[in-house]
């Protein structure tokens, strides 16, 4: 049985594919290779996968009705890791339609596709820490109310969770949603702060520092995220109760934005030109993942400190990332 991974050319998706291939799984990767950020980076990630034994790739837009089912017709799919989505909180202010199409319509197409698979054991899908919205209680726990999103992106991810809950109730579709907290590392997304800051600092340009650096984020290193995704994928929820569950995938150690920049300054050997900006209406001051559920159910704890993780990103960026890919 193959494992289907959507968003296979994305940051998390490409790393998940590599992990699955390394342990001998057959992987079918899907991606539409859109231009939300430079497709050159996506194609470079994909190059690492193409030619690997057990990997096949299909360029598919999952939001297009029936395109997914037609593309993988005849393949035996046992598990699905659904990571394809329109990412980015701030971009949702500029192009809200992209989020409805990709995150809501696309998620519905995945649910319908999975409902039609008699061989399906488990669907694991990407949610986001953004669903916690304006919550003040920390750390954020999976049982907290998530009724106050502060961005359309967050609202679409909350909608995905609700749709998945419904399909678990109506059709017994076994699913797990993962609320990712600020994932970073080599081969990451160039629209994320760690990439934007690194590039600007090396080029001597100012960086925008929101809320005087008093923003706290639960930065989670990519290897810790991938370990969690694969562990969860291997253990579907029981059908004795509603077969839908949610887990935080975070670091459980929030870092202050100002301190985050301090670490980058030490690693890069340059002083950042800090341009203070007010907090944006689509932002929250703090994210903080309660990891008790994941630890209890899977004996998993995040291992990578922010300093170690940023060092690995900077080494990648300076050795091959920006120079070879020319990503802007």
Low-pLDDT runs: none
Q: Helix content range of the residues, please? A: 25-40%
Major sheet description:
7 strands, parallel
Head-to-tail CA distance between termini: 39 Å
Number of strands: 13
SSE pattern: EHEHEHEHEHEEHEEEHEEHEHH
How many alpha or pi helices?
10
**What structural category do the secondary elements indicate?**
alpha/beta
Question: Strand order within the widest sheet?
Answer: 3-2-1-4-5-6-11
Task: Characterise the protein shown here.
By secondary structure, the protein is α/β, with parallel strands linked by helices. The chain has one domain (2-183, 219-250, 288-303): Rossmann fold. The chain is 39% helix and 18% strand. The chain has helices at 11-22, 39-49, 67-71, 96-115, 152-171, 193-202, 222-233, 257-268, 292-298, 306-325, and strands at residues 2-6, 27-31, 55-59, 77-82, 122-128, 175-180, 183-184, 206-210, 216-217, 220-221, 244-249, 255-256, 273-277. Strands 3-2-1-4-5-6-11 form a 7-stranded parallel sheet, sandwiched between helices. Strand 5, helix 5 (152-171) and strand 6 form a beta-alpha-beta unit. The longest helix has 20 residues, at 96-115. The mean pLDDT is 93.
């Amino acid at each position: 049985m193959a494992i289907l991974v959507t968003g296979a050319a994305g940051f998390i998706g490409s790393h998940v594919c590599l992990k699955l291939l390394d342990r001998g799984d057959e992987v079918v990767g899907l991606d539409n290779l859109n231009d939300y950020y430079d497709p050159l980076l996506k194609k470079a990630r994909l190059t690492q996968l193409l030619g690997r034994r057990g990997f096949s790739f299909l360029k598919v837009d999952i939001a297009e009705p029936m395109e997914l089912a037609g593309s993988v017709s005849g393949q035996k799919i046992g598990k699905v890791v659904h990571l394809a989505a329109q990412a980015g909180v701030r971009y949702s202010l500029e192009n809200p339609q992209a989020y409805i199409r990709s995150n809501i319509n696309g998620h519905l197409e995945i649910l319908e596709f999975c409902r039609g698979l008699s061989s399906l054991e488990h669907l694991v899908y990407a949610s986001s820490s953004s669903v916690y919205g304006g919550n003040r209680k920390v750390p954020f726990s999976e049982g907290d109310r998530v009724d106050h999103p502060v961005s359309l992106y967050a609202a679409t991810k909350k909608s995905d969770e609700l749709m998945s809950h419904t399909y678990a109730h109506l059709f017994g579709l076994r699913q797990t949603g993962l609320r990712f907290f600020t994932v970073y590392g080599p081969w990451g997304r160039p629209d994320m702060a760690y990439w934007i800051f690194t590039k600007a600092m090396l080029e001597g340009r100012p960086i925008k520092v929101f809320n005087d650096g008093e923003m706290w984020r639960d930065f989670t290193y990519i290897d810790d995220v991938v370990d969690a995704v694969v562990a969860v994928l291997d253990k579907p929820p029981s059908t004795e109760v509603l077969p839908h569950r949610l887990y935080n995938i975070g670091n459980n150690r929030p870092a202050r934005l100002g301190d985050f920049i301090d670490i980058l300054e030490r690693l890069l050997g340059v002083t950042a030109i800090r341009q203070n900006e007010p907090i944006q209406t689509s932002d929250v001051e703090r994210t903080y993942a309660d990891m008790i559920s994941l630890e209890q159910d899977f004996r998993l704890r995040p291992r990578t400190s922010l300093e170690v993780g940023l060092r690995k990103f900077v080494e990648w960026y300076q050795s091959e990332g920006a120079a070879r890919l020319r990503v802007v």
